[in-house]
Spherulation-specific family 4 (Streptomyces durbertensis), 217 residues
Amino acid sequence: MRLLVPLYENPADRPEAWRRLFNAAPRLYGVVLNPASGVGTAPDAAFADVAVRLRSAGVRLLGYADTAYGARRHAEVLEELDRYQAWYGTDGAFLDQVAGSPAELPEYARLAALARRRGVRTIVFNHGTHPEYGYVEHADLLVTFEGDWTSYLTARSPDWTRRVPPGRLCHLVYGVPAGQADRVAAVAEERGAGVCCAVPGGLPHPWDALPEQLETA
């Protein structure tokens, strides 16, 4: 089970947490960079520094961009991804609030194709729930669950997930009790996901901590 880590904290404020990421490089699918609920208006020196160190450790860097369930213009999203590449050397994109219905599929297919033409090598669609199967064709990784621990235990996966290699699906779970992160990994594996992240915090800002496996390493 590999870890996708969306650590939405500035490295200048949480240097020890980011140091743990450097040491955990072999366990990571990737790290999401999110300086200002997006790339922001200017480079952040602290993020630039950790980006260099993570790349040197062989970690995949994903720039966070909100797609607003298809309401945001492609040009804005692509411009943001361009800035991530220029400022932080990202090699992938973590697209948040991605729609999952058949109606929006053609537009997301187009967005993914345009991003790849601009040098984005890894595309993550964060649906937060299971989308239509067709989205699998256009992203390298689909986040098919994002929610709290209680909801995760009773969630169900559609039949199509059995046809997808485990490395293509990811579960992001917050509010996880102490000592239960490995259980999240086990449940994710049972449901066909080969990537996950389980953190202790809850809403409104769950992604301010590392997964427990790294906090206790």
